[in-house]
Specification:
This protein has 356 residues and is an alpha/beta fold. It contains 15 helices and 13 strands. It has helices spanning 11-24, 47-53, 69-87, 99-110, 130-140, 150-158, 174-182, 206-209, 212-228, 238-246, 261-270, 279-287, 302-306, 317-327, 344-355, and strands at 2-8, 30-36, 60-61, 91-95, 115-118, 144-147, 167-170, 199-201, 232-235, 254-256, 274-276, 292-294, 310-312. Helix 1 packs across helix 15 (344-355) and helix 3 crosses helix 4.
Length: 356
């Protein structure tokens, strides 16, 4: 039996792991060991996902969060290495583009343990983003590259992966698997009375929150949309809330606490539009047929832009406001099954079994 060592640490990875782990349990060929780095330590950003999604409690729980990117990644690297030496897995499985992803892949590669990367090949082409560095380096040291889209496959081809001793596969997007699987369990945020016909916003990415001008522009845009277009509901992470307060910005929208995945699914299903700087939320909006306005300069999900489902506006106040007015209430359709139709997890597990 093959022993797979799964490494997760941040909200999207919990969701992705939930559907892949579910598929792993259907086979007798894989034993899974799960390590949680602790990168997201807020109960609303970690424990709630294990409870809601039915993921088994991690076999190994680190408590590594805070500090600089280098400090966090270095601490993870050291502790993951010790766990790998103890458990001696046949393969390490990592997800996405966080510090936990890179630390897990790097620890495995240095111990000559093969690495499989879910969401391989994504590129924003913005090296100022720590996520871009993480995903590029992780792809370079993985031998099974599970790409969610044709764009991701092409990115790897353009980088010369066709000439490397690796296997590049387009399997679809596990987040669509999760959206389809968990949609029926969606529940409204229990603690909140929400306005009708609301716009859902998220704001957390460092390129926006750590840049005073960009953050101020986005806050002003959200205020304007909330006042003139439709109520804006914003689940706000404590870090972003703190940065807004430090800049003495006046944010006049419907603020709620961070929510669990099922609550986020409910918000996506009931909103009139999504405004976000999140990578994952761009896709989730699409899964639920909602137009998306992305407050970033680039996106990894260029196929959504090409399909007319997503509009990139950066942190320009006027562009954000105009795009919101154009897109509020607009429905989008997945006519081409851009993300695999909900079968990505099974395809990944089938390939893991084949790889042995």
């Amino acid at each position: 039996m093959q022993r797979i060592f799964t490494i997760i640490g941040a909200r999207p990875q919990f969701i992705k792991a939930s559907v892949v782990s579910r598929a792993i349990k259907q086979t007798d060929d894989i034993e899974e060991i799960m390590l949680h780095t602790g990168q997201h330590f807020d109960a609303n950003m970690s424990d709630i996902f294990f409870n809601q999604l039915g993921i088994p409690r991690p076999d190994i729980q680190l408590d590594i969060h805070g500090g600089s990117h280098g400090e966090m990644t270095g601490r993870m690297l050291a502790e993951i290495e010790q766990a790998l030496l103890e458990h001696k897995p046949d393969r390490v499985l990592v997800y996405g583009d966080t510090n936990s992803t890179l630390a897990g892949a790097l620890a495995a590669a240095k111990l000559h343990i093969p690495v499989a990367h879910v969401e391989a090949g994504l590129r924003s082409f913005n090296m100022q983003m720590p996520e871009e560095i993480n995903r590029i380096l992780t792809d370079q040291i993985s031998d099974l590259l599970f790409c969610p889209t044709t764009t991701a496959v092409k990115n790897l081809e353009d980088e010369g992966f066709a000439n490397k001793p690796v296997k590049v596969m387009q399997v679809g997007d596990v987040m669509q698997d999760a959206a389809l699987l968990f949609a029926e369990k969606a529940v409204a945020p229990a603690q909140e009375t929400l306005p009708e016909n609301f716009i859902l916003a998220t704001l957390h990415r460092a390129e926006n929150t750590d840049d005073p001008d960009r953050l101020a522009n986005i806050v002003r845009a959200l205020n304007q949309i909330h006042q003139n277009e439709a109520p804006v509901v914003l689940p706000l992470h404590p870090r972003t809330r703190k940065l807004i307060a430090q800049q003495d910005l006046d944010l006049n929208v419907e603020l709620i606490d961070p929510v669990g995945y099922f609550e986020m699914v409910w918000l996506l299903d009931h909103c009139q539009l999504v405004l976000t700087d999140s990578g994952g939320v761009q896709k989730e909006a699409f899964f639920f047929g909602k137009a998306c306005v992305t407050m970033r300069d680039q996106t990894e999900w260029v196929e959504l832009v090409h399909a007319g489902a997503n509009e990139l506006v950066g942190a320009d106040q006027e562009k954000i406001v105009d795009a919101a007015a154009r897109n509020v209430g607009r429905r989008v359709k997945d006519t081409e099954q851009l993300y695999g139709g909900g079968e990505a997890s099974q395809r990944i597990v089938d390939e893991l079994v084949k790889a042995g």
